[in-house]
């Protein structure tokens, strides 16, 4: 039987979400978004995305591990935890000069933001002068700066902000209910406290989580609810797919269904309409089609380079090829007038150069 032609298309089209910034989501509302038919969910997410962002632009960051391994925390997914034997080679804090050399290379390859990560519970006071020098040096190159160093005291957050740190990354990881299954060495509240010190110091917040750790669908909803109900939405929201690393307690956990991951991106986009939603760890296990669906669902940020801390990341040239196939351009920074940088950014994506961007420590 032929489909009726007198039914208007709009009756088959879900109402486009009003992309208001809300901080009062309930679990039932988030679960209802996840339960939408896939096409309806993606339509809503794409509609919200277009209300707030250029639809064919993706922001590019580069990540360097400035101190690798031997972390005192016991995050069960993490090869850098000193609690597990993953064969990871430990590295002390990199010298400032080495970090600046890597940042320069990243900028020349098109990154607009340079993220520096240290496997620490929290930075020690003796390390702060070096950290501050790194921030100042990277900032002076015209790059946005981001760091992830673990928990911060209010004073440490203030000194990083004064040095010019734009973003601080500190993830919630998962729902409060599932959290104890993953980390026992610090509490959910510790994480919320650090986020509030970062906000109060005036820095932008990069905060997301990891899915595919054996959590329930409710936990994924509850994680997004926590993120969206923060006093301010994080400006960047990394959604990571667990990379199972041998030697960690999660090495044999069941895979998360790919559509469930794409749904998580779409729901994040709807609930966090003004945030950059970043496809982060786990992207190297996604084929081009899955990544394309994630971009359609509202992901608009990636890490670019051949290493993402200590886990794999698709090589830079593969990203360039995919961007070309999809007609995606790197997001231009509109808050700086560094034309040379803008040109380098555009060139990097056109360029089919195959050399790896950089190798993170370790
Ligand atoms: S995720 Fe961060 S805090 Fe947790 S073990 Fe790894 S490096 Fe340490």
Automatic annotation (TrEMBL):
InterPro entries: Aldolase_TIM, BATS_dom, Biotin_synth/BioAB, Biotin_synthase, Elp3/MiaA/NifB-like_rSAM, rSAM, rSAM_sf. The keyword S-adenosyl-L-methionine applies. Its cofactor is [4Fe-4S] cluster; [2Fe-2S] cluster. Pathway: Cofactor biosynthesis; biotin biosynthesis; biotin from 7,8-diaminononanoate: step 2/2. Signal peptide: none annotated. Keywords: 2Fe-2S, 4Fe-4S, Biotin biosynthesis, Iron, Iron-sulfur, Metal-binding, S-adenosyl-L-methionine, Transferase. Residues 56-283 form the Radical SAM core domain. It comes from the Bacteria. Binds 1 [4Fe-4S] cluster. The cluster is coordinated with 3 cysteines and an exchangeable S-adenosyl-L-methionine. Coiled coil: none annotated. SMART domains: BATS (SM00876), Elp3 (SM00729). CDD domains: Radical_SAM (cd01335). Transmembrane segments: none annotated. It is an enzyme of class 2 (transferase). [4Fe-4S] cluster binds at residues 71, 75, 78. Its EC number is 2.8.1.6. [2Fe-2S] cluster binds at residues 115, 146, 206, 278. HAMAP family: BioB. Catalyzes the conversion of dethiobiotin (DTB) to biotin by the insertion of a sulfur atom into dethiobiotin via a radical-based mechanism. Belongs to the radical SAM superfamily. Biotin synthase family. Homodimer. This is Biotin synthase. It comes from Alishewanella tabrizica. The gene is bioB.
